[in-house]
UniProtKB/TrEMBL annotation:
Cofactor: Mg(2+)
Name under which the protein is recorded: Uracil phosphoribosyltransferase
One Gene Ontology term of the molecular function aspect: magnesium ion binding
Residues of the Phosphoribosyltransferase domain: 6-208
Binding site for uracil: I194, G199, D200, A201
Pathway linked to the protein: Pyrimidine metabolism; UMP biosynthesis via salvage pathway; UMP from uracil: step 1/1
Keywords: Allosteric enzyme, Glycosyltransferase, GTP-binding, Magnesium, Nucleotide-binding, Transferase
Family matches, as HAMAP family: Upp_B
InterPro entries cross-referenced by the UniProt entry: PRTase-like, PRTase_dom, Upp_B, UPRT, UPRTase/APRTase
Main enzyme class: transferase
PANTHER family on file: ADENINE PHOSPHORIBOSYLTRANSFERASE, URACIL PHOSPHORIBOSYLTRANSFERASE, CHLOROPLASTIC
Length: 209
């Protein structure tokens, strides 16, 4: 069964409070999401394998560690996931970026793929799917399905805020996927918003309404 990690680091929690605050404007919201994404990327990459390399410091020759050639891919779910990408790339500039776009079918209310573009070596890469909000879980499940259909084998999911319902749905559909969360909130309301949440992540990131 995939693990669920809730990051309780004080910096993440502090910044998340301002992300939630309705008084926080678009510019600051975007910057804070970017910073929290970097902090979460730092925590979520603890298990990257290392290898020894020989180097020379100004003092002597020594053996030191570098990340062992792991190929990573970041996959934002359009559109709000885009707000988390740069924060990742600051720490992992060599990671490739795929995109998954989903819309909700008006009759079945199920998410349907309308755009998928992934690096072409999907089978050799570890992927982190990012979306600020894990609400009903439908988009996360479908985005992970999209990656698996194309051969991805090792997938993590990362969001800022999750609902308990969303976490359960993803765990059930994809028991192999670890989930990384900055905060696990109370519930979903009747409109599918996370409570207390932060409102509509896409609108707050891009200044739309
Ligand atoms: N998507 C959002 O942007 N916010 C929510 O609260 C739920 C889904």
């Amino acid at each position: 069964m995939g693990k669920v990690y809730v990051f309780d680091h004080p910096l993440i929690q502090h910044k998340l409070t301002y992300i939630r605050d309705v008084k926080t404007g678009t510019k600051e919201f975007r910057e804070l999401v970017d910073e929290v994404a970097s902090l979460m990327a730092f925590e979520a990459t603890r298990d990257l394998p290392l290898q020894d390399v020989e180097i020379e410091t100004p003092v002597c020759k020594t053996t030191s560690k570098v990340i062992a050639g792991k190929k990573l891919g970041i996959v934002p779910i359009l559109r709000a996931g885009i707000g988390m990408v740069d924060g990742f790339l600051k720490l992992m500039p060599a990671a490739k970026v795929g995109h998954v776009g989903l819309y909700r079918d008006p009759e079945t209310l199920q998410p349907v793929e309308y755009y998928v573009k992934l690096p072409n070596d999907v089978e050799e890469r570890d992927f982190i799917v990012v979306d600020p909000m894990l609400a009903t879980g439908g988009s996360a499940v479908e985005a992970i399905n999209s990656l698996k259909k194309r051969g991805a084998k090792n997938i993590k999911f990362m969001c800022l805020i999750a609902s308990p319902e969303g976490v359960e749905i993803v765990k059930e559909a994809h028991p192999d996927v670890d989930i990384y969360i900055a905060a696990l909130d109370e519930k979903l309301n009747d409109h599918g918003y996370i409570v207390p949440g932060l409102g509509d992540a896409g609108d707050r990131l891009f200044g739309t309404k």
